[in-house]
Write a structure and sequence with these properties.
The protein is built from four helices and seven strands. The protein is of the alpha+beta class. A four-stranded antiparallel β-sheet has the order 4-5-6-7, with no helix packed on it. Helix 2 crosses helix 4. The longest helix has 38 residues. It starts with 6 loop residues before the first helix and ends with a helix.
């Protein structure tokens, strides 16, 4: 224990006070950093946020359009058919769907295609299907991936080849498209 009033006690107390002041300053600076939005600090972050908002707006609009068209089709079909015929047609449609499901396997859903460039300048494609990343010669749902191009995926099943076209790209975070998209909106 250091006695009160000595030079050593004064130095120790000074270090304690300096540590408290340094901690208060650091807390103040941290609160200032947390309090300010990060998006103001980076143009790339703001562009990504803008593209994300465009994507969400597009998805909301697409969902609204699909809901409206489905409701319109249902309303028109309900007005045109008598109730007994409606029940009969529903049963026939269910039977047809079951028979078609037995005849052919359903096609896998292609979500997107990624192009990956190697350090040697070569590039390869990866297909995003059914929530999985798939390469050439891999299998999915009784299909074998024969080739992947920027235009789509070639599948083979029981000696028959099928082609699934690449989905349409609605937005991209590529540098050349971000500036053009930001100016047009």
């Amino acid at each position: 224990m250091i006695q009160i009033g000595t030079r050593r006690r004064l130095i120790v107390d000074g270090f304690i006070i300096m540590a408290i002041i340094a901690a208060v300053i650091n807390i103040y600076l941290l609160m200032d950093l947390i309090g300010s939005p990060i998006a103001q600090k980076s143009e790339a972050f703001m562009a990504a946020g803008s593209k994300w908002q465009q994507y969400k707006d597009m998805q909301d609009q697409t969902l609204e359009d699909l809901t409206k068209s489905a409701e319109a089709i249902a309303a028109i079909s309900n007005m045109c058919k008598p109730k007994a015929e409606k029940a009969k047609s529903t049963a026939i449609a269910q039977d047809n769907a079951a028979i078609e499901g037995q005849k052919t396997d359903r096609m896998p859903h292609l979500t997107g295609i990624l192009q990956v460039s190697g350090t040697d300048g070569s590039s390869r494609f990866i297909a995003l299907m059914e929530g999985k990343r798939l390469h050439k010669n891999e299998k999915i749902m009784n299909f074998t991936i024969k080739n992947i191009t920027a235009k789509g995926v070639y599948l083979s099943q029981n000696g028959q080849e099928k082609f699934i076209p690449a989905p349409e790209v609605y937005f991209s975070l590529g540098a050349e498209q971000v500036s053009a998209g930001a100016e047009s909106r």
